[in-house]
Amino acid sequence: MAGTGQGLFVGVAVLGMVALGWAASAEPIPLPTPAPLPKEKGPAASKPAASAQSATSGLAAGVKSLFHLDKDAAPATTPATTTAGFTSAQRTQVDKVSAYLTNMQQLIGDFVQVGPDGSRVKGEFYIQKPGKIRFEYEPPSRIEIVADGQSVIVRDRKLATQDLYPLSQTPLRFLLSERIDLMRETNIIGVRADETFVTITIEETQPLVGTSRLVMMMGAKDYQLKQWTITDPQGYDTTVAVSNLDNSKRPDPGMFKIDYTRYIQ
User: Which of 15, 43, 120, 157 has the fewest C-beta atoms under 10 angstroms from its C-beta?
Assistant: First the structure.
């Protein structure tokens, strides 16, 4: 990807996490971007956010689902190698996605996040490998998410509070690894490609928490990240779609600093 990409996190999904069988069963909802969004799922799907309060509630649920932020969660189990059971074409597609993610050492762009209740929030994101990411949500949201390579914090700007979690706990570590071989280092359960997208579904299990899935959608021609969807162990989807991608600018390192003295238990 050179300069500004034609990416998309709207139509979300990071990670497209990402429309294989289970996700593809839902009719996509068109958005003003190239990638489709799945229909909202879960008990609150019929009640889209209609106020700042409901949007904030939807954001909180989406953030928790997106990052698997549960302080009682244990690290995911080490997956078995998944090279068996896929065609040579599928393995080649996964290798190309791995190469893209490995070569993507820095990235700036816009995103749209769709929470489990159908609420949508926008913002900007910044990635600097290894392990650093920042999500800045547009007002009225007051939330910021920052990862410094070891930990992830969810910061409330208005209340001046923050909660801290291990980065190893979130599926986003796959995007933030300095080098990644998805076929050998993750549990891939599906690979699908058409003229528009290459979709990879990754599944992992955390003791005491359950099984989650990450669906990544990449462009079929340029293998750029378009969107991803995380399905948490309770079956709720959070989708992120990215757009206006730019890998030519190095984010300010100060954007990823965490003040551990402000950590709230």
Answer: 43
E strand or H helix at 244, and its extent? strand 237-246
Is residue 212 within 8 Å of residue 16, measured between CB atoms? no
pLDDT digits (tens, 9 = 90+) for 120-148: 999 999 999 999 999 999 988 888 999 99
pLDDT digits (tens, 9 = 90+) for 169-186: 776 777 788 899 999 989
For residue 249, how far is the Cα from the chain centroid?
21
Query: Quick one: pLDDT at residue 69?
Result: 53
Q: What is the pTM of this model?
A: 0.70
Predicted confidence (pLDDT) per residue in 99-122, tens digit: 999 999 999 999 999 988 898 999
SS3 string, 74-142, reads CCCCCCCCCCCCCCHHHHHHHHHHHHHHHHCCEEEEEEEEECCCCCEEEEEEEEECCCEEEEEECCCCC
Query: Pseudo-torsion of CA 90, 91, 92, 98, nearest 10°?
Result: 110
Q: Which of 202, 243, 203 is nearest to 219 (CA)?
A: 243
- Cα separation, 121 vs 59, in Å, equals 7
Show the CA angle centred on residue 116, arms to residues 162 and 217, nearest 5°: 95
